[in-house]
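Input.
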Amino acid sequence: MNQVFMLATQAEKEISEKSEQITSFFSKDNLMNVVDSLCAWSLSMAGKIIGAVLIWIIGKKIIKLCVKLVGRLLDKGSLDVGVKHFIGTALRFVLYAVLVMIVVGQLGFETTSLLTLFGSAALAIGMSLQGSLANFAGGLLILVFKPFQVGDYIVSNGMEGTVSSIELLYTRLHTIDNKSVMMPNGALANSNITNVGSEKERRLDIEIGVSYSADLRKTREVMTEVLKSTESVIKDKEFKVVVKKLADSCVMLESRAWVKQEDYWDTKFALLEKFKNELENNGIDIPFNQLDVHITGLEK
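Output.
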């Protein structure tokens, strides 16, 4: 019984203390102090908020002016459109990031933790997008140093075609058989690139193998006449037929002539057909690979 009485007394005491605390909190003097504190805090925050809004408005105008001035300076240079667009976008992003940090600091928040958060997020994103970042860097190198331009015919990594567009991550090629190939700029920037479309004219070399019994002087005359009679072959530049090598089953001759860039493939296909027809008409044999099998020791 004594223990129950003591517990009841303790509970009554706690209830009494809680009642006094509640009564004290809702007293007139305490409520006036709370209202005064809220008003002071609101006035201080109002000043910070107004200052932050003014900083944001003025900062946006300054950013717009800076981006516009940089754009005009870039227009005076010879940079590619893609590079100009990237520089403008990157500059705008950096300036807005600085403006946000200034506004957050004006409101009284700690900016150090925010910078740490942004840094960690940037590191995580960079680690997960390594391939894309490599392509991005390769795209910038291509746009800045211009190893090729839109409209050039290039050969790289076993692919060849006409460059139809250069983007920040990929370069699009249009092949002669009407296919569209997307090549990653990272691999493209780190590989050998043969730009066969940078010049207006291109040398066309064609190899033709003839029999060892063929008259080489006559063969060269026939092939030279074919070159002379082909309109797309540039006559102002040297064209000739040479013995390139003595192969296993034939004598390899090579014709060398200059054509315009846009006539390269049509001329190549036409010359191959003409060479074959004219050599056959003149009794000059074009050998092909064959296997002779001799069987000995068979009894009748």
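The mean pLDDT is 79.
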